[in-house]
Hints:
The chain has helices at 4-11, 19-37, 40-47, 52-79, 82-106, 113-141, 144-176, 178-202, 223-230, 232-260, 266-321, 325-349, 356-387, 392-427, 439-446. The protein is mostly helical.
Amino acid sequence: MMPVRQRLDALFNLRRGEAVPVLLAVLFFFCVLTALMILRPARDALGMQRGIEAVRWLFIGTALVTLLVNPLFGWLISRFRRLQFIAATYVFFALSLVGFHLLLVLTPQAVGELSGQVFYVWFSVFNLFATMLFWALMADRFTLEQSKRLFALIAVGGTLGAIFGPWLASLLATPLGTPALLLISAGFLLLALLAAWAVARSQPQPMGPATEQQAVIGGSAWQGLKAVFRSRYLLGIAGYVICMTLMATLLYFTRLQMVAALGDDMDMRTTLFARIDLLTQLTTLLLQTLIAGRVMKRFGVPVTLMLLPLTVMLGFIGLAMVASLAVLILFEAAFRAIQRALTRPARETLYTVVSREDKYKSKAFIDTFGYRGGDVLGAQLEGLLGRLGMGLAGLASVAIPLALAWAALGLWLGRAQQRLAAAQADTLPTTPAHTPDPPSATRRQQQ
């Protein structure tokens, strides 16, 4: 009779020596998402205090702040070892949470619409960099073959954190007060940092010696930007992220419009946003545990990357036909669930075939520019369609062609990844096992 350990390994597609690093990665992502989701419902409610038009400007402010921070982040990557700049980033955000806590406790009269907007922008930057660093470390520590089997399973940790965070907030907000939630979030962020260190110790970098794990990446702070515009592959990833974020923003503002029509009570809005988040996370967990890992392994990255665009196309058709909040909630739950359970792990596997420098610098630029650029484009496009008096049918007429182009780009990226992996496999026997591929050679393959 097969032992329990072997049954679990077979169920989760684990191989010898992978259980510990995967469990640590799950814990890492759990702590990151718990820290984020404790605060997210309040962020959305605070952002709407000055109306939906103000949220569009907040998107622009978030994009500007994120792009200004990107060179500083590139400098950290160039000058410090990986765990050092990961630690510096997480500690900075944890200290920022302590600062917001002191503001709420010591000067509550200063907390108003302006401070709420500052927190909205700060949270968006925090959300982006915290998750980006997690997936960069995953792409750095796991091979392409491992990523196809394990990234969907690792993503379950984030989903559990996204469920646990709002539940914990609802449990502690009344007895401890809202300011205390910021300290709890900071605590989970520090726990995430400990888990990141444990992942790095338990999962050596593929095809590199132990000393290489401590190496400084070096190079220019602007190297990530230059690399993206020199590589069609990296530029394609950036385009995919922009399309995905643009669609998410169109859906986000559609949700804001429908919720705003229900009334201006902030507690009602916060409660509704939290319920939407809970439904989304439960749907995501279901997909991750039963379907996600097998989809990527069975159909590959190209097909997996096409699933979200096709979902968006069908969702906007449904919204155009039945313009109701119930349909919107189902659409958004499906969108986020597929994005987190399938698309995000598949998209992160794209970085397993690029150089170590690109896994951090180019990824940082793509995530900051792609996410924030897509946010701004989506917010302004939705506002323009509203000013032109175009309803959900008009929105669908724009979203559906974009979704088809997005699906085609996902198919191309998946096939390009296969070609890069095959090219690297062909050159592997002639490359010493202890020598990592130089960034310049990897980029030439990406051209």
